[in-house]
Serine acetyltransferase
Amino acid sequence: MAQTKSKLTEVDPVWDRIIREGEEAIGLEPLLGGLMHSCVLHHKSMEQALAFRISMKLASGEMSEQLLREIADEAYAADPAIGQAARADLVAVYERDPACHRFLQPLMYFKGYQAIQAYRVGHWLWEQGRHDMAYFFQMRISEAFGVDIHPACRVGKGIFLDHAHSVVFGETAVVGDNVSILHSVTLGGTGKEDEDRHPKIGDGVLIGAGAKVLGNIKVGCCSRIAAGSVVLHDVPPESTVAGVPAKIVGKAGCSQPSVSMNQLLGGAD
């Protein structure tokens, strides 16, 4: 009876769906058979597949795929929350990105998802005091994906980086749960201060393309930052800000901006 209960608790619908979609992908495109087997079908868990995918993407002449995979495997084994966040991130991409039609896609093809998962391993290294290895991860993530997230930065779960080009999160930045961020977004500082100097983004926030959020400021839960805005001051919860410098132009327009992905200012009334 105990063995049966253990097996039931190991059911993983996200991973099971990815396996099924990987098999379907081979049927549609047999030339992808080798890739799908090595990246998906060969592995017993989503954590193993992520460790393999991360290591293949970050490997270089400076650090082998085998060593990087051992580090990622160690992180997933030590902290189950990393794998749980990976599943939440994947579902977030599937639900919010109209270009995502399968769970398989973020794992295999979307660099924003891959970059966040690699960051999570780097953040675990930072928390373990392995700062030099964490910095190496940051460097390779930036080189491979065009996403520069300091390993000390704290990022919640259910994160969607859409396109994920030229995204920067500073050392003391904090990003809450269920946040959606488009390309060319910076969560940066305003000078050379060496203290708590980066933004704190609340849950459910939507940050449009090209927005810059600068300084130790708070962006309230379920707010929207319009594309191209420069935010220098606190943003109240459930508000929409726009402009350079950004000003409040209305309410968020819905209860979950990061999920609706509605970026039209006309919806903020």
Summary: Residues 1-9 have pLDDT under 50 and may be disordered.
